[in-house]
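re: that complex we talked abt at group meeting.

here r the seqs, copy pasted straight from the sheet so there may be weird spacing, ignore it
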Amino acid sequence: MNTILEHITTVLTEKFEVPADRITPRTMLKDLDLDSLALVELQVTLQEDWNIPLDESTVTPELTLGELAGVVTALAGPEQESGHA
Amino acid sequence: MPETAAVTGLGLVTPAGIGLEATWRAVCRGGSTARHHPELEAAPVSIACTVPGFDPRVHVPAPRPWRLDRSTQFLLTAAHEAMAHAGLSTEEWDPSRVAIVIGSAAGGVATLESSHCKLLESGPALLSPLTLTGFLPNMAAAAHLALGLGVTGPTLHVSTACASGATALGTACLLLACGACDIALAGGTDAMATPLCAAAFARMGALSRRTGEPEAASRPFDKDRDGFVLGEGAGVLVLERAGHARARSAPPLALVLGHAATSDAHDPVAPDPRGHGLRSAVLQALRQADATPGDVGHINAHGTGTLLNDRVEAGVVRDLFPVSAPSVTSVKGTLGHTMGAAGAIEAALTVHTLTTGLVPPTANFHAPDGDTAGIDLVTGSPRRQHPKLALSHSLGFGGHNTVVVLGAA
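got the structure back, here u go
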């Protein structure tokens, strides 16, 4: 889980240019100042990076980053918790 | 008589580099920027003039530039330079009085091509939601710029193929003249050096086949010309009502004294061999400028290096200017054909000719043939000249002819 959260953090800071100090496990996606298409792009990015069937209806603005990491972990399987897919 | 539009800023991204000065140095040196491109090898012609060293994260003044098509990245970079050149800042203007008019031939075609490949390879689940906002022509060529600058006046994309950039300048002048805005960011952008576009142009016989000698391939008006070389880039000009520029003490670089657009109604891609449409556009634009052919000191030609374009264009110049013989140049020998950006890039360079008193040479010209002889083509090295009035010609597939008349400030 931690590795997945770290990966999500890296994607958000490097690709989406979200300031690192705004990212915590309790931060909701809607509080990251991303526009209407960015959430879908984030979902596509995670889907591709982890090769998981992450449904776009799952990635809602109210989801926290911790919850998102939990969803990705559940889809990627426990073997992915310790390393990138 | 509508108020004249003043040009107060220029911005360029071209195969010669990023910025007006890099491009100006290259066109004055008169070399070619054409190179072999391995990524185009699927196409019958793999030479192109592409923007060197362009790093979106460094050069594009916008967050998350990876979301934008390459043509949009060029546009935002060129617009940023043009605004700085004009001394304009978004904090000082009324955004409802600013217009954006940008031409492109193909919109975000690189995004369209790569997205289509992705769809075929991986299915719709991995298709980026940014696909449409990347390739829709209004987004790629205008709306992203308006979003970035907070502009709330009219935002238009115009498309007349390779004349698009010039059409954008003319359309922006109309918006200024009718009072719809005080400032217009006008120009063109295209990034069509892609496998699909290269293959398509090659299939229709438009590209030079001199693949073993890329630097010699783009040779406007030369007797051995055999087609154009695909290029890419963007050009933006800041246009203002002359009174608006005066009120904020912005010195005009040049004035847009006239512009005209005509259509050949002749053939899908070939220019009318009689040149009636181009001739008519020149005369209409000069009439609007209250000028005659004898007043024209310089012409920045469309000069693509195709057999037909250069034949028609040289014929019109010989016919319309039999005595005064303005100097003529084509920068496509250096930059290749930047498609919908060409009209804007060439208008910007024509403005720079008016301000610097230098006409850049036509690269790769060695000798004319019977079709292109009899015009005063500048070759070899830049010519010192101080024209008061200059024309920029642009022609496009579909039979578009656009002429812009620029006057020294």
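couple things i noticed - The domain at 2-80 of chain A is CATH 1.10.1200.10 (Non-ribosomal Peptide Synthetase Peptidyl Carrier Protein; Chain A). The CA atoms of residues 11 and 83 of chain A lie 15 Å apart.
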